[in-house]
């Protein structure tokens, strides 16, 4: 397919730039293997000694779910369908605030080692194991997409050996993850995130220049109909609207940033609860920047190619390849830049795969092995390292599976997050917010949720594929002329929407929201049928007191309404931090009121904990 323009080749300097990425990543692993506690305990290998601060955590949190899939998939989405997808940025507000103020305080104060330990504390061992297995399943499929995507893109455009690239990513990742543990994974994420941004900036810089400046890019994109206003259409089967992206996206973000072990492990590895919360505040601008850069690349590509679509000209075989084609086409006169962009692509994937290896090793150790076998710390650490290595090999195998069934990578990845991550989110929400939910309800909810998720997800896949077949059939028939009107109407009749078809055409952006809601509803129904849990039997600290917090908020307002009442309200508002000075209660300033808004009791707890 590439013959039309010839396969582009890397110059020596490109190989040097790219090689440096691999060497530095491995060096970070080596450094952490021989510094600190030398990775001799599982606390260090899997929890980074609970010593991390918010800045590296923020960059690492972003890197986990930002793989080559986003780097090549997002610009391709904008290039073909316009800027509507950009509105997913609206979902980042609630999608990060909710984990920061609801999920993190619960996880952190329970001093967990894995997110799924929560499920045992709240429900039972069975729920924990079901949760762990679901997570393992999700991450293994996702890793396959994550490792295959950059390798395929590179292969299609530069002729770089496909399985050579897969092996390079898999091996480098396995080495530094196994040697350096979570600390190496997080610090490598920091370095790789910087490389990622550098590569994207370089492409935008050169692309804007080639297209004739920013104003020209804007004009061409607007004239080509690629600038989209917010689409308020409430139809849930529309792929991208404000509702699917901005509201459905919140559930996607909750599944990823709220309850996914890879992220929860980072919150838990934080030095204090406050640092963990801060890291989510800091990841917000980083995510917005990453989204903006990849959307801009899409617009710049459009400005450069407009009438000259490389897919139609058959320079590329798949929509997702347009970015690398563009990079090799535009950057070849700038030695080193193609190498930088490939480094960017590999950085994105390395940081995702390494987080996946480490989190998979953690849950296998903490949730599946440690509760059932007692072993010495040194043995446990060795076993954790072997697990990280084994998951590395498994990841290579998954790349092969993805090689066989491929579709648009961005949609595939987000569908997986919703189909497997959505039901998991549901189980956690059932635990946090519904005291009466019991273990039977949680397990039934999860199983039904997963079944519905796969039914809708696979139904959608099959329906889309048969629609493509129908579409191509009908155009073939139409080409023959008038005589064939009969068959055409037949096609129209068979494609009349039924309830099932409507279900299958649900936007993939809603998967997380719909599937988690199903788990909550089924979970509650079954809990009430099998005997709801009494609130006094629920492990303390595992519930989020929704009503309690609302009531407190209400009382806060009540106490503050007339400022003159401050000195009389000490008794009625026990949760307010009153400053005692010489025996008199002083007024709490507006700023302090802001700070004490929800997590008042939280703060006291954290301060107590961190001083221990
Ligand atoms: C996770 C989000 C939605 C956050 O913006 C985005 O980065 C994304 O769609 N990622 C796709 C999966 C990936 O890049 O591997
Ligand atoms: Na990544």
Automatic annotation (TrEMBL):
Sodium-dependent multivitamin transporter that mediates the electrogenic transport of pantothenate, biotin, lipoate and iodide. Functions as a Na(+)-coupled substrate symporter where the stoichiometry of Na(+):substrate is 2:1, creating an electrochemical Na(+) gradient used as driving force for substrate uptake. Required for biotin and pantothenate uptake in the intestine across the brush border membrane. Plays a role in the maintenance of intestinal mucosa integrity, by providing the gut mucosa with biotin. Its main location: membrane. One of its GO terms (biological process) is pantothenate transmembrane transport. Gene3D superfamilies: Sodium/glucose cotransporter. InterPro entries: Na/Glc_symporter_sf, Na/solute_symporter, Na/solute_symporter_CS, Sodium:Solute_Symporter_SSF. It is found in: Apical cell membrane. The keyword Glycoprotein applies. One of its GO terms (cellular component) is apical plasma membrane. It comes from the Eukaryota. PROSITE patterns: NA_SOLUT_SYMP_1, NA_SOLUT_SYMP_3. Interacts with PDZD11. Belongs to the sodium:solute symporter (SSF) (TC 2.A.21) family. GO terms for molecular function: monoatomic ion transmembrane transporter activity; symporter activity; vitamin transmembrane transporter activity. It is a multi-pass membrane protein. This is Sodium-dependent multivitamin transporter. Keywords: Biotin, Cell membrane, Glycoprotein, Ion transport, Membrane, Sodium, Sodium transport, Symport, Transmembrane, Transmembrane helix, Transport. The chain crosses the membrane at residues 15-34, 54-73, 85-108, 129-148, 160-179, 186-208, 241-259, 280-303, 340-365, 386-406, 412-434, 441-463, 508-528. It catalyses: (R)-pantothenate(out) + 2 Na(+)(out) = (R)-pantothenate(in) + 2 Na(+)(in); iodide(out) + 2 Na(+)(out) = iodide(in) + 2 Na(+)(in); (R)-lipoate(out) + 2 Na(+)(out) = (R)-lipoate(in) + 2 Na(+)(in); biotin(out) + 2 Na(+)(out) = biotin(in) + 2 Na(+)(in).
